[in-house]
Design a protein that fits this description.
Elements (H helix, E strand, L loop, with lengths): L47 H27 L2 E6 L5 H13 L6 E7 L16 E7 L8 H6 L8 H26 L5 E6 L2 E3 L13 E4 L11 E5 H7 L6 H6 L7 H11 L4 E4 L3 E4 L16 E2 L9 E4 L5 E2 L1 H6 L16 E2 L10 H8 L2 H11 L3 H14 L2 E3 L3 H9 L3
Parallel strand pairs: 1-2, 1-4, 2-3, 3-14, 6-8, 9-11, 10-11
Antiparallel strand pairs: 4-7, 5-9, 12-13
Helix pairs in contact: 2-10, 11-12
Keywords: Membrane, Transmembrane, Transmembrane helix
Pfam families: DUF7796
InterPro entries: DUF7796
């Protein structure tokens, strides 16, 4: 006999209470009224349809632009920071705030010579990402007859040797990037190259990343192109940053008597790379002395208090010696490739003298509090504190290629 399960119904199926019937959909009644069914979408006035199309197109366009901007900001970027750390206690905090923190996902590569100021690079301990630190002992390059014909010694404080040193620092940073790419089996989308002695007064604009040209600052051309900052995609940057190895190509092309800026311009020209000049909110802190007032090929020295943007011009902290009508009388349009100076954007120092007495007080008033506090911290830094900070930087760096932190700090303490 079939076994009766406990959950089996005790009543016959016919005696169960029937489920409620689902009502049929309402019947569509046709009439002679002008109301149309929503099925065909003709209930909207005819004039609304073009407006909806325009709104849809605008929405798609804004979505595309937002995606393009977001893609630029998150794509793989390498930042190449080169040069000596002479005034890095003044420039470092501004580079951190206005460049490195603007691109926190970018990989930072630092290439600098070892000297008594190298300990100041410890400020990079707080950088978002430090991929490699390369601090090399100074090397001297052999100056060939070809270098003598191709390059001009007059525009460099250390002559042709100074140019070769600078070119090698730039290209050495590119080699660091290439080695890291090989190790990780990937390629960067962008490379941004800037200098350790750059004093930034505002954030880097990611709109400066252009796929079809190499972006450089406007002005300070000196017969070529401003080479104090450069932004380009990977293939363009490979040419722009090969400052030393491509010198024979410039010689074969017939160039001669080039300074850094004109050699850079010739380099892009030989390889058919278009350059685009934009204004950037930074200047180069310089201890060099220049004749005053500036004229012709004499470099102007701007005050860091200038509203700017100064686009990589030489600058220093000073109570302005010339501004407003004084600037107009000097005629800045006659200077070599000077950037925009109208509307009070430029204030000049007397660059013929050393930094004026009391510049520290002036700097602290002009700079933000973080930068001013950092200047005091570095000035009062003990060897022990330096050692701890440099060890922290070494620990944070993905790769450390340089002397032991204690050697760097001891070298710095002897100069203070």
């Amino acid at each position: 006999m079939r076994r009766k399960f406990q959950d089996e119904p005790s009543q016959p199926l016919e005696s169960r209470e029937p489920k409620a019937a689902i009502p049929p959909p309402p019947t569509m009644h046709h009439s002679n009224s002008k109301r149309l069914t929503p099925l065909h979408g003709h209930y909207l006035p005819q004039l609304c349809r073009p407006i909806l199309w325009y709104l849809l197109i605008a929405f798609l366009l804004l979505t595309f632009l937002h995606y393009k901007q977001a893609r630029t900001s998150i794509s793989r970027t390498a930042i190449c920071l080169v040069g000596g750390a002479r005034r890095f206690e003044l420039t470092g905090p501004t580079i951190l705030e206005h460049v490195l923190n603007v691109l926190p996902e970018a990989d930072l590569f630092v290439h600098s010579n070892l000297d008594e100021n190298t300990f100041k690079l410890a400020l990079l301990r707080s950088a978002p990402r430090v991929t490699e630190m390369r601090i090399r002992r100074p090397v001297r390059f052999r100056e060939t007859e070809g270098h003598m014909r191709l390059l001009s010694a007059g525009s460099s404080p250390n002559g042709i040797q100074g140019l070769l040193q600078y070119f090698d620092l730039v290209e050495g940073c590119l080699n660091m990037i290439a080695a890291y790419e090989t190790q990780g089996n990937f390629t960067y989308d962008w490379i941004l190259r800037t200098r350790v002695d750059g004093y930034w007064t505002g954030p880097l604009d990611i709109k400066a990343f252009k796929t079809d040209s190499y972006v450089v600052p406007e002005g300070s051309r000196y017969g070529g192109l401003n080479d104090r900052l450069g932004i380009g995609n990977r293939s363009i940057s490979a040419v722009a940053l090969s400052r030393l190895s491509l010198l024979p190509n410039l010689a074969l092309a017939g160039f001669s008597d080039l300074n850094s800026e004109s050699a850079f311009h010739a380099q892009l020209k030989v390889f058919n790379i278009p350059a685009e000049e934009l204004r950037f909110p930074f200047c180069i802190l310089s201890d060099r002395q220049y004749k005053y007032p500036p004229s012709g090929d004499i470099a102007p020295v701007a005050s860091i208090a200038s509203p700017g943007p100064l686009s990589g011009a030489k600058c220093r902290p000073c109570v302005p010696h010339c501004k407003g009508e004084c600037i107009e009388k000097l005629g800045p349009e006659k200077w070599l490739g000077w950037t925009e100076w109208r509307n009070g954007s430029l204030e000049l120092c007397d660059g013929s003298q050393p930094w004026q007495e009391g510049w520290e007080e002036f700097f602290d008033k002009v700079a933000d509090k973080v930068t001013a506090d950092m200047r005091h911290k570095v000035k009062e830094m003990t060897t022990e504190v330096c050692w701890q900070d440099m060890k922290g930087l070494k620990k944070n760096a993905g790769r450390w290629n340089g002397p032991d932190p204690i050697e760097i700090c001891n070298l710095g303490s002897t100069s203070q």
